[in-house]
């Protein structure tokens, strides 16, 4: 009998933990960092609060990054009017002139940052593989991390859910 009670209690705790993660209460806060944008301005992690934000670490030399960029543009345009934002963070090894040329020639509509020192990638979990993308909820918590190109249909469903939350 005691094993059944203990087993039921463990199952209840695990279920509650699973629901907490699903509802976003088990999310971890986005790390404090400062994004230096191409126009010379900067934005901090705390500036992301109140919006659902996609933070994408990429490089102009990364073929997967370049291939997914049109989908990132489409996703941004689809949801920007509803409180969605995107910050594309170029890796420290990416020459700034290449990043500027890429952003201008493809008319990227979202914020593009250059991580000259690597401090932002380090703060966000020592990002080394590109693309690595984080989805951050309105409370500034990381909800999902993608290494490689995300499944954009699933990403859009998750964005819809997060935008619907208060």
UniProtKB/TrEMBL annotation:
Residues 24-164 form the Thioredoxin domain. InterPro entries: Redoxin, Thioredoxin-like_sf, Thioredoxin_domain, Thioredoxin_ResA/DsbE_sf. GO terms for molecular function: oxidoreductase activity. PANTHER family: CHROMOSOME UNDETERMINED SCAFFOLD_47, WHOLE GENOME SHOTGUN SEQUENCE, THIOL:DISULFIDE INTERCHANGE PROTEIN DSBE. The lineage of its organism: Bacteria, Pseudomonadati, Pseudomonadota, Betaproteobacteria, Burkholderiales. Coiled coil: none annotated. PROSITE patterns: THIOREDOXIN_2 (PS51352). It comes from the Bacteria. This is TlpA family protein disulfide reductase.
